[in-house]
Amino acid sequence: MARRERADKAFNATRALNLPDKEVKLVLKHLLKLFDNNWEPIEAEDYRALIDAYFELKEDKGKDGCENAVVEHGESSSLPRRLSLRGQEDQVSSTKGSASQVSSPKENAKRKRVWENAVVEHGESCRLPKQLCLRDPEDRASSTKGSASQVSSPKENKKRIVSLQQGVTFLNKRDSSSSGCSNSCKKPEQQPVTCEKKRSIQIISDITKGTENVQISLVDATGKKQLPKFTYMRDNIIYQAAYVHISLARLADEDCCSGCSGDCLSVPIPCACAQETNGEFAYTAEGQLREEFLKACMSMKLEPQEDHFVYCLVCPLERSKPEKCKGHMVRKFIKECWRKCGCNMQCGNRVVQRGITCKLQVFWTREGKGWGVKTLQDLPKGTFVCEYVGEILTNTELFERNSKASGDERHTYPVTLDADWGSEKILKDEEALCLDATFCGNVARFINHRCFDASLIDIPVEVETPDRHYYHLALFTTRDVKASEELTWDYGLDFNDHEHPIKAFKCSCGSKFCRDQKRPAVQVSL
After folding, report:
1. In this predicted structure, which of 12-26, 190-204, 303-317, 417-431 has the lowest mean pLDDT?
2. H helix intervals, 203-302
3. Which of 368, 440, 441, 461 could form a disulfide with 445 if both were Cys (CB 3.0 to 4.6 A apart)?
């Protein structure tokens, strides 16, 4: 098989995990040099050696303070320092003119690799190296023209120990309780081989189970964390008592654009669906938010004024105690075209309902924040990333769910759908809704909180119903975001509100504008 064809197959395997080709290419070059251009150990176990080497390199880069720098911030000429290789076996050199190389049973036994299974949820498992004893490609006896094969002496082998910077075996620092590799890797008459116990890198290639437009991978490079247990859902779903009435009869003709065709953004005069955003569409032709609209949404959230709030006569959040409503922010809505409109699904005013198109990855953060989400591609300002999906609960159901939960259970922070509560004086319980992604949700449940200067902003979007007791909560970028950067959004937490259904955690966002700076930061996992 040609070298180019083999390289293409390797890249196809790593693209399934959304690994950048540029970074993989660097690791692949190192491995080919290490294995003396022998592709077999690289292709074994569905390119497990290549994938392991990539994540080991990323991890060591992170520990040195340049977590995301591999290629895009300058190529590194060395592989991780923890990756080590020691020359450990004699090899018979092929004599020029001889037919082939013959290994003794004893030598074959020394080349045996032991594998263990890394258990991964959702029905996927990865077979990872438990112990790898790799041969130094330069550790060979020189061949003599016309003579029989020569065997390296133990004394020569001792000199051929490759440094930690040069070698690659995908192994951890040796545990003090481990005595090294198996006997098959040792030879009494030469330097003992030191192998180290390998932790299992946990990988799920697609947590969405094929429900999204793109695959979203999950990677735990530490190999020590319990994988999250939840049901992935692409769309919100009613838990039990929530009232969400979706029907075409409730959509008045003046609230849709039945006379449109094709793409509504292509016509000079905006259609009826743009009335909500003052007669202009919220989106540009490229699918991003218009600068003016995004700026207005950010200003309202970051610098709210008194006239941005409305107050319930009987607040659903305060019914259990004799307190006045603390106020609900009147949010700017986006209204997208829907079923009753005449345009097609590629209309520029149907962004959120088409679903996720960005390449995302769930990963275990190093700052003590638990799981997080990063983008695997550059995202321009105003790009739609995903919506927050979960079970649609009433506030009473949320309170009861939290009351029954044990202290050890971890909950994602619920989202209250209160952007239009002020339009009615009194709301029934089944109309005061929230989203809870603890047990069922999408990738947004892993996005961490950051005070004030987060890279995402949440904006309410009306799609299938004019009844704003229920709406979609979409997340858009507030600035240009680089590939491999973690995505964050401001949950809007009041860290002094001790009466919230779920107590505010101690913030570890790291922002200089953190609203919880007076409290010591602790590790949290949302």
Report:
1. 190-204
2. 291-302
3. 441
- Which residues are within 8 A (CB) of 15 and not within 5 positions of it... i.e. 6 or more apart? 21
Question: For residue 43, what pLDDT is reported?
Answer: 85
Strand partners, 362: 218, 373
The answer to whether 83 touches 164, Cβ cutoff 8 Å, is yes
| Cα distances (Å, whole numbers) of residue 506 to 368, 494, 514, 525 | 12, 11, 11, 11
- The C-alpha atoms of residue 229 and residue 231 are separated, in whole angstroms, by 7
DSSP classification of residue 487: E
Based on its alpha-carbon atoms, the radius of gyration of the chain, rounded to whole angstroms, reads 29
pLDDT of the residue at 437: 95
The one-letter amino acid code at 185 reads: C
Are the C-beta atoms of 128 and 200 separated by less than 8 Å?
Answer: yes
Instruction: List, in order, residues 6 or more apart from 316 with CB less than 8 Å away.
Output: 395, 421, 427, 429, 432
Residue 378 contacts residue 224 (beta carbons within 8 Å): no
Annotated catalytic, 491? yes
SS (H, E, C) 140-200: CCCCCCCCCCCCCCHHHHHCCCCCCCCCCCCCCCCCCCCCCCCHHHCCCCCCCCCCCCCCC
* Rounded Cα–Cα distance for residues 10 and 27 (Å): 11
What domains does the chain contain, in order, with CATH numbers? 3-164 (no CATH), 237-448+461-484 (2.170.270.10)
Q: How many CA atoms lie within 13 A of 176 on its CB side?
A: 0
Instruction: Pick 365 or 156 by higher pLDDT.
Output: 365
Q: Is 243 a catalytic residue?
A: no
Options 47, 232, 283, 388, the catalytic residue: 388
What are the backbone angles phi and psi of residue 497, rounded to the nearest 5°?
A: -85, 100
pLDDT at 237 exceeding the cut of 50? yes
Residues 24-28: contacts with CB under 8 Å, at least 24 apart: 24/50, 24/54, 25/71, 26/70, 26/71, 26/75, 26/76, 27/53, 27/54, 27/57, 27/79
Tokens of 453: 């200067």
The answer, yes or no, to whether residue 146 has pLDDT greater than 80, is no
Q: What percent of the chain has pLDDT over 90?
A: 34
Mean pLDDT for the chain overall: 75
CA distances from 358 to 384, 443, 450, 490 (A): 8, 12, 21, 20
In 10 A of CB 217, how many CB atoms? 20
The pLDDT-based confidence of 14 (bands split at 50, 70, 90) is confident
Tokens found for residue 77: 């000429």
Q: Which amino acid type is present at position 346? A: Q
Average pLDDT over residues 115-135: 37
Residue 416 belongs to what H/E stretch? Answer: strand 415-416
